Amino acid sequence: MSQHAPIRIEGLRKEYRQGDRTVVALDDVSLDIPSGSIFGILGHSGAGKTTLIRCLNLLERPTAGRILLGDVDLAALDPAALRRQRRRIGMVFQHFHLLHARTAAANVSAPLEIAGVPAPERRRRVAELLDLVGLADRADAWPSQLSGGQKQRVGIARALAADPDMLLCDEPTSALDTETTGQILELLHSVNRRLGVTVVLITHELAVVKAVCDGAALLEAGRLRESGPLPALLADPASRLGQWLLPPAQEPVPAGELPPHARLVELTLADTLATGPVLGALARELGLDVTLLGGGIERIGGCRVGRLLLALSRAGGPPDLPAALSLLSAHKVRAVPR
Hints:
The structure is a single chain. This protein has eleven helices and 14 strands. The chain folds into two domains: about 5-230, Rossmann fold, CATH 3.40.50.300; about 245-335, 2-Layer Sandwich (Alpha-Beta Plaits). The chain has helices spanning about 50-55, 80-85, 105-115, 120-130, 150-160, 180-195, 205-210, 230-235, 240-245, 280-285, 320-330; strands at about 5-20, 20-35, 40, 65-70, 70-75, 90, 165-170, 200-205, 215-220, 225-230, 265-270, 290-300, 305-315, 335. This is Cell division ATP-binding protein FtsE.
């Protein structure tokens, strides 16, 4: 098994009893989270996000289904084996959950003490982790002396203490201001890239997914509605996540002001997919006039993506739209007539 194993959820179901009725919190959720990725699980309040993350670390036992960390089914383990496997899972909480009677260093040290790591190795590891999260000079500070962002940095360091395969982050920025949120997301991105640890981000904020995630899933009423790598979601015209992350380009000019016989086409581009100067190719290879009507390009999930609304026209008559769509497809650009 690789040091950082992929995560697979198969047919996950979680039921609760409330009086004489059964409440289904998760219903047949199946999801693959690639090893070494930052994966966002998005949903509104009540969607099942918290239940899912509690099932992932087996704080809640699933009613049915499997949770595989590499080739180990966590839901099938006895208590002793589960305790050993939980060391492979770090947890970062929304409200930090620091021990107020311990310093920053002692908070980071706590899971190492529980694991029986010798004191000299604990001190070395704690110093290394506090340096990693930018708090080497705050080792002796008490939680009451730390800002919210600093507390979350201690929480991240503590979650990394046992060198986990997976870092579960339950709304890790929702208690922070905008500037501090950006700093914490940047830290999680750095941790992911430097250590290779898989980061699972539970969130209700699209901005969090856009800032750092490689892939995402949408939960609604306990069911998985869609999931996948961000470029694939953005390129799928039927993807709700893709539409939310990058809304359709809007036409800013009246139709009467468009070139004669113009046809409107909306493009979705991602720099991990698109090849070559596509707009120039339309003009050069097909003799088309290309008018940019709206849209924009931004960075989502580590790559440049954009939606552009174009008017394609040609002197003397209508453009050859099928040829234009074929050329764009050859350049791996999704194009949809409007």
